[in-house]
Amino acid sequence: MSAFNAIGADREIEDEEFTPGIEPQPTWCPGCGDFGVLNALKQAMPKVGRNPDEVAVFTGIGCSGKLNSYFESYGFHTIHGRSLPVARAAKLANPGVEVIAAGGDGDGYGIGGNHFIHTARENHDMTYIVFNNEIFGLTKGQTSPTSPKGHKSKTQPSGSAKDPIRPLTLSLSAGASYIARTAAVNPNQAAEILAEAIQHDGFAHVDFLTQCPTWNKDAKQYVPYTDIQDSDEYGHDINDRAEAAEAMYDAESKLHEGEILTGRFYVDDERPSYTEEKQAIGEMPEQPLAERYFDEDTEWDRSYQLLEKHK
Ligand SMILES: Cc1ncc(C[n+]2csc(CCOP(=O)(O)OP(=O)(O)O)c2C)c(N)n1
Ligand code: SF4
Ligand SMILES: [Mg+2]
């Protein structure tokens, strides 16, 4: 990709286009689940028909925050817990851009938890991937909001006295309109779920289970897992809020008992996004606010083409 290209024509897109040519190879530890997110995201892009120029990835701080260094697209490595407000601004200014925010469980459910709740509540049109390894990885294994009760770490040597957060349930009550859980050990499902989340109009939250073999050796590697959509035992109506809440509670209770339930938990295709709500009350224009440099012929212009292409 050359920076500041014109909008790409419709064409077949290869996942390898999302591998940067000049960036260093990932510095994640061998066996890290973060590789699973990167690969799934690359595989999702041909499914959604976006080329690298049409995507912007916003990350927080953590091992997970390195995602956009290894993924060819526009990117912004923000500060700890703050990927969502930056991503929201970008989407509001340039609605044709495919906005993806990503970060760790500490980043998104801890320090950035308030942004998570309110971005879900407002149903901003973006995908939010949370790398859930149940610890602070980058800072060497401290207890995080998703660490199980009793989990021992340098910050909680006698074991955590706290119940872990329930991210799926929290997301539902906050207002996210697409909620799924997948795992790095399940690459095909992960790529499908990310593609769906990206195509969803509204706030799509994917809790992505990622093993950290370096600092969380006690953690399960998230196998064996059950895909709730493939299971007669667990299938529920993903459009039914009450049934989704029950399925989420079940999955979150079983996670630390060694039963890993993954799949789509809730989808609401009817709810308008924040941009649509603001346009409906006349507080946002139909045309993109952002200007973008295309080429010598058109120079700076608002990103109408991008918006038109992906309407
Ligand atoms: C404001 C602020 N507080 C604390 C830190 C230190 N810090 C960096 S990454 C991190 C936690 C990372 O954990 P998580 O978000 O789960 O990401 P992971 O490394 O596990 O992918 C912390 C506390 C920081 N960079 N900025
Ligand atoms: S410390 Fe853990 S989360 Fe970070 S790169 Fe290594 S294995 Fe991955
Ligand atoms: Mg983490």
* Known CATH architecture: 3-Layer(aba) Sandwich
CATH level 1 class label: Alpha Beta
User: Biggest sheet, in brief?
Assistant: 8 strands, mixed
The CATH superfamily turns out to be Thiamin diphosphate (ThDP)-binding fold, Pyr/PP domains
Strand/helix succession = HEEHEHHEEEHEHEEHEHEEH
Say which molecules are bound, naming each kind only once: thiamine diphosphate, iron/sulfur cluster, magnesium ion
Strand order of the largest sheet: 2-1-3-4-8-7-10-9
Describe this structure in words.
This protein has 311 residues and is α/β, with parallel strands linked by helices. The protein has a single domain, classed as Thiamin diphosphate (ThDP)-binding fold, Pyr/PP domains (Rossmann fold), CATH 3.40.50. The protein contains nine helices and twelve strands. It has helices at residues 34-48, 83-93, 105-111, 113-122, 167-174, 187-199, 241-255, 274-280, 304-309, and strands at residues 55-59, 74-77, 98-104, 126-132, 135-136, 142-143, 178-183, 203-209, 225-227, 260-267, 291-293, 300-302. The strands form three sheets. It has an eight-stranded mixed sheet, with helices on both faces. Helix 1 crosses helix 6. The longest helix is centred in the N-terminal third of the chain and has 15 residues, at 34-48. The two termini are 23 Å apart. The relative contact order is 0.15. It binds thiamine diphosphate, iron/sulfur cluster (SF4) and magnesium ion (MG). The site of thiamine diphosphate has 18 residues, from strand 3, helix 3 and strand 5.
